[in-house]
Design a protein that fits this description.
By secondary structure, this protein is of the alpha/beta class. It is about 40% helix and about 15% strand.
Amino acid sequence: MNCKYNSDAICRHNLSCIDGFIQKKDCVEKCDIYSLYQDTQTIKLLLKSNGFPKSTFTSKFEDYKGDDEEGNLLFLKEYINSFSEDSDNLYFYGDSDTQKSTVARIVGKELLKKNFSCKYILADELIRLLAREEREEEIRDYIDKLITVDFLIIDDFEKSKMVLYESGWQLKFIYPFLKRRIDIVQKPTLIISNSEIKKIEKDFDYSTYSLIKREINKSMQFKDLYSYESSKSNFDSLRTK
């Protein structure tokens, strides 16, 4: 009969398995497939509760498209293996569709598997929260978690991708947050942008630029464009008929 917890597996225990546990002569033992199922569900829940997109669960380094001539994946695999509170701060940059965010999420997922706490947040969402921090205690508590989490990923760190008032007054909250996170608490942080670090001064301010330039230990450029050819619809071909 098929396993209750993995439809592709055949249950080896038949009726002796009750809700993932096997009754043996002297003890009750958890089935290996049930253990794997529990681990899978735990990772799914962790990803969801820490801001990661649903697609992160099935993403893996092996699906990376391109030659990775910069050696980013090799570095990041070692980064995950040796991760600690003293690990480097990282900065990913490159054109759109060069798989920066996908790779960053995989790093976060692998760290969650190793029982490190990790959160993923868009810079636009972060700045909206920071603008409300002084007025709402619940938001302050969440910001505190972002500051103290083992590994924080801030994606789309681009002024053009943030919804701002015309004056851009919300931008003033970025520097104090990063100062607390990177400089004072000193927790490893990954910032993702389309632009090199030097553009931060123009988009934000000198203090934010200087802090990131000083505290980012590893700046990594991504160049391999993801190919959408295999997933394109046949709309274009239908239109020509």
